[in-house]
Amino acid sequence: MKKYDFIIAGGGMAGLSLAYYFTQSSLRDRSILILDREQKNRNDRTWCFWEREAAQAGSGSPAPNPFEAILFRKWNTVSFHGTTHAGPLDMGEYRYKMLRGIDFYEFVQNELVKWPNIEQKQVTINRIKDTPQGGFVIADDEPYIADYVFDSTFALKLDQPENHNLLQHFKGWVIKAEKQCFDPTRPEIMDFRVDQQGDCRFVYVMPFDAQTALVEYTIFNDKLLADDEYDTSLRQYIGRFFDTGTYQICETEMGVIPMSDETTHEYPSEHIVRIGTAGGYTKPSTGYTFQRTQRYLRSIVENLTETGKPNRHLPWFLGRFKLYDSVLLNVLEKHRHPADDVFTRMFSRNRPATAFRFLDEDTRFIDELRLFTTMPWWAFTSAFFDVLRRKIVG
Ligand SMILES: Cc1cc2nc3c(=O)[nH]c(=O)nc-3n(C[C@H](O)[C@H](O)[C@H](O)COP(=O)(O)OP(=O)(O)OC[C@H]3O[C@@H](n4cnc5c(N)ncnc54)[C@H](O)[C@@H]3O)c2cc1C
Q1: pLDDT at 55 over 60
Q2: Any stretches that span the bilayer, and where are they (predicted)?
Q3: Cβ-count burial of 28 within 10 angstroms (0-12 exposed, 13-18 middle, 19+ buried)?
């Protein structure tokens, strides 16, 4: 059996990003096998994220995003509708960016076909296990082995009672309206003008042009809705806030993203590395995954290049962000304070750029203390002690 240097199990966002970073590194000649059951030839999702502009960022800024050239849209200002603030947020040095799944898949595939050492197979993975000889994968009854298997197919089990296990679930429509009703310069990142029903519910509107937009109804809680409930909420929101005339639904996307502080095992054994959502790369308190995945994978490739091992070593002091995530999840899960007001305070009582930087885990401790003073103190203090209690008592 041929032994590969690397097997990438799951060629979705994380798997293909990793393969792309390999081609841009000194590991570009290694033998690589990518396994996925899908062909990835549909626009199955759209990624939005914020990023500091490379030209404006100071030293220590993250490397520029290699997918900049294929962004579908990029905005300098975003809108927010909360409890006490409605209107634009000044993003400072940040830009809000949108990348369509299909553009990403095509861009990476166009690069990968240039490399004869990179093989791809459309198969279903049945099993991944570690052996003394390397990471072992069985897919469609065929065995494959490699020095390292990078696995983005592992399904997280989020069931430990001492943790917070919420879900971010959403349904989005790309609609084409009869009338010009969207402002293409102003995406709405959170519009809380929907019935909260005791949860955190908001709508997200990404305008492509004056007549076309992705409108997404999003909930943070632990129970999915029936499909038609998302549809009803979307219809009501569009009818209430946009003078569309008639409209057509051109595309639909649905998603469920874990919002959990459960400890994930990024390195479950010597030859297996979990990446993407499977590796716990999703930011627990927001569900954003794309940018963190890019950051973490770049660091895996750097480590492999420099040391021959993929392990990322996080400085201990960055562990504080895990605690902040748990506290925010606790506030949401226990309904300690209305979520719409928590996010309104975060974005309106702080410089929005500081809030984005905080959510990127890139702030200084002093900035974090300042941001905490803008939060409802009783809700956050009780959440903090509850998190400590759950960690100690279990
Ligand atoms: C609709 C949607 C919209 C999202 N929008 C955003 C956003 O705006 N911003 C953001 O930061 N994050 C967003 N996310 C979250 C996250 O960025 C995505 O889920 C992202 O695709 C996760 O990357 P991944 O590689 O971990 O998983 P995927 O991209 O899902 O890749 C996993 C791959 O593994 C394959 N696979 C799984 N099991 C097997 C098997 N047994 N055999 C073979 N192949 C298998 C799948 O076919 C898939 O291609 C969104 C998620 C969804 C679902």
Answers
A1: no
A2: 6-23
A3: middle
